[in-house]
From TrEMBL:
SMART domains: MR_MLE. Residues 128-257 form the Mandelate racemase/muconate lactonizing enzyme C-terminal domain. The lineage of its organism: Bacteria, Bacillati, Actinomycetota, Actinomycetes, Streptosporangiales. Coiled coil: none annotated. This is D-galactonate dehydratase family protein. Pfam families: MR_MLE_C, MR_MLE_N. PROSITE patterns: MR_MLE_1.
């Protein structure tokens, strides 16, 4: 069965999503998520100009060979744009393979290693009381793992906070929003905040926190040590993720578990982190790191070293991408946890996903392939809406990591 048509569709039902549609000569359609927040059109153009012309006439069954052709066959390889584009092709081909076999993709990956996938939800607040109310709401909804973020006193805005009722969307505006960051205020506040959460709700659920690349290694070490009494499930992205050696220093000072990797796009970004056991959870997602085929290899390497998965699952990964990640989560032996924010209206007018949230877990559907349908007519009603992720500066005006 050959690929006969390929198309990229950019649509914004609530936020921007880039979706690849592959069609075979026998009329089987596969979808892949190619959404890269704030850089949507770069991936769309890479696919349209440099990938789609190579796909026509290729055997749709040969996923690995197509992957190698697009990766090894490109002299300028890796990087978020390229790897998100390759990922979309990989997802769409797994979708087609599942539909041809009449099986959900997790069956093709070896079958379910678990019934459902434990997820963590996002609690956030403009102050401590607001945050505590949101944690309570998550526990009532059945979450067994909750990520906790709150506005840092003294700062005008802080990353990771809901931007509407239960909505988290950091991208906004025709130019990047500028935020002012204060490390000292942050480091003073976070241990107090986690203490309040444990005091109020106890230790019977997993507590997570995202540092969002803001600290130096020694600051991150101090934070990890200060949080030890609160028995965190993890702290995430404690330092800018491209510096793998930073984690050696953090690791030597704290037993707070470490997670990193939402911005990684290949196994080379985390090889030392894994083989030197410098982290506990690797957060690479199927959408941004070369698809199911490549993230499976990352997770296999991680399994050898006792590192578990904790894949990125924000609203800026489409339901197709989240579904692809779920199939992998269900099948791998070293699954740890999955991030879950959900997709809010009007996303459901364009995407019809079969998986569902219940009791702190995502449950797969038994639809063949990835199990997500895409309504092209509805997609046309929501044109591309350009938006940027924010940038961060220090009080003296110098740029900082956002
Ligand atoms: C965040 C993301 O979910 C997370 O852990 O770090 O929401 C991140 O800010 C966005 O995906 C950026 O697009
Ligand atoms: Mg994060």
């Amino acid at each position: 069965m050959k690929i006969s048509a390929a198309e990229v569709i950019v649509t914004a039902p609530g936020r921007n999503y880039v979706t690849l549609k592959l069609t075979t000569d026998e009329g089987v359609v596969g979808y892949g998520d190619a959404t890269l927040n704030g850089r949507e059109l770069a991936v769309e153009a890479y696919l349209r100009e440099h990938v789609l012309p190579l796909l026509a006439g290729r055997d749709a069954a040969r996923i690995g060979d197509t992957w190698q052709y697009l990766y090894r066959g490109a002299y300028w390889r890796r990087g978020p744009v390229t790897m998100t584009a390759i990922s979309a092709v990989d997802q769409a081909l797994w979708d087609i393979k599942g539909k041809v076999a009449g099986l959900p993709v997790y069956e093709l990956l070896g079958g379910r290693a678990r019934e459902a996938v434990t997820v963590y939800g996002h609690a956030s607040g403009a102050d401590v009381d607001d945050l505590l109310a949101d944690v309570a709401r998550h526990l009532e909804l059945g979450y067994t793992a909750v990520r906790v973020q709150a506005k840092i006193p003294g700062m005008d805005s802080t990353y990771g906070l809901h931007t509407g009722p239960n909505i988290y969307e950091p991208a906004s505006g025709a130019l990047p929003k500028e935020e002012v960051w204060n490390t000292a205020a942050y480091l003073d506040f976070i241990p107090t905040l986690m203490g309040r959460v444990r005091e109020e709700f106890g230790y019977g659920f997993h507590l997570l926190h995202d540092v969002h690349h803001r600290l130096t290694p020694i600051e991150a070490a101090r934070l990890g040590a200060a949080l030890e009494p609160y028995r965190m499930f993890w702290i995430e992205d404690a330092t800018p993720a491209e510096d793998q050696s930073a984690f050696r220093l953090i690791r030597s000072h704290t037993v707070t578990p470490l997670a990193v990797g939402e911005v990684f796009n290949s196994i080379w970004d985390c090889r030392e982190l894994i083989t030197e056991r410098l982290i506990d959870y690797v957060r690479t997602s199927v959408t941004h790191a070369g698809g199911i085929s490549h993230v499976r290899r990352i997770m296999d390497l991680a399994d050898l070293y006792g590192v578990r998965s904790g894949s990125h699952g924000p609203g800026d990964i489409s339901p197709v991408g989240l579904a692809a990640n779920l199939h992998l989560d269900l099948a791998i032996p070293n699954f740890g946890i999955q991030e879950y924010m959900g997709h809010r209206d009007p996303a459901a007018e364009v995407f019809d996903w079969g998986y569902r949230y219940e009791n702190g877990m995502l449950w797969p559907s038994d639809r063949p392939g990835l199990g997500v349908e895409f309504d092209e007519e509805a997609a046309r009603r929501f044109p591309y809406d350009p938006k940027y992720l924010p940038v961060a500066r220090l009080a003296d005006g110098a740029m900082h990591d956002w």
